[in-house]
């Protein structure tokens, strides 16, 4: 008998809260509300704002032979360019103009999506807090679709344990070692019910923070996976489904491999499972508790850690896109300023779902780098706090981007992809290096004023 057995994937409508057909005569469509581990929402801008939609979620009708899960995952892949992981079905049918829409809550790493992703259906992507997502959805002029998307957003947020950004991130299979449950297992029916808020804490899972923590727990597609943290052995797989009062744990698979788990009495297993869910998940810590060294190591690997060039570059890319779109007249005039305000807070405070580098994100380090790299007035900047210095540096960057765009517009022989884009990309690399303190290596002797239209 194998020591582990590949987990079966639910098919069709198994474990889903929906009927297979609807009586309204409208077609069914399936999609995904995609979040990162801290609860930020991935939104897509609709190409040419088709049918009055500006920012929305990925969804579409089923292809022949597809299950709801397959349709939703395919639509997210086609319209956002990513392979996400299903966390849970979002209960409810959401009516649009021509379809009844059903959604899954999905998870992806912060750095996975390319925010510049574009195709015939999508213009670009953006990460947003719930409040930012509401404002983005409000830009749609299709009133029925706007109200539908706001309802979907609220239903998705109800599956999260708190208002994002989450202080304690969602656990993912890839966060820790884990093995599949062996073929030697028993299946026990359950009738335990949980409220919506309790279920949200269960979906978050639990990541071990020290050697004393015995469990690694994550939730995927309606199933709670409980693994021993030291060995990765799977002890329980708990199956959930929506019910009238919230959610129900209706079945648990229990490891019975004698070389992995020695317990044999179901009542002891169920008592242990109840303790895990009640104490580690429902009443577990709201914030992570980690020792100093482990905390530093954990921070450096978090998707929102402001150390990797990819993370910093993606943030600055938002400003470049806003300035270009603002110049084209496709966004409001204050769009770039709004991004500058947002980034100034992210790089100066640990309050936006990002983690700053100890020692670097200070007036004495990053602040001085911005003054020099962006040619800011040293006397004017003397005594200013980091938030102000970041804002000044980004404002100087905004002016330089505008200067290059004006140079492109005045050059009758210039082409966007051949001439403008390479110069903007190099400016973006320089700005990223300044924010990381590596510009003396990547661009020695270069400052912002050295970037001129060529």
How many strand elements?
12
Number of domains: 3
For the CA atoms, what is the radius of gyration?
25 Å
- Beta-sheet strand percentage? 15-25%
Low-confidence stretches: 290-294
Order of helices and strands: EEEEHEEEHHEHEEEEHHHHHHHHH
Q: Tell me about the biggest sheet?
A: 7 strands, mixed
Structural class: alpha+beta
Distance between the termini: 69 Å
- Whole-number mean pLDDT: 89
Bin the helical content: 25-40%
Query: Helix segment count?
Result: 13
Choose one word for the global shape: globular
What attributes does this structure have?
7-stranded mixed sheet, hydrolase, 454 residues, Nudix_hydrolase_domain, 5-stranded antiparallel sheet, 20% strand, alpha+beta, Nucleoside Triphosphate Pyrophosphohydrolase, NUDIX_hydrolase_dom, bis(5'-nucleosyl)-tetraphosphatase (asymmetrical) activity, Nudix hydrolase domain-containing protein
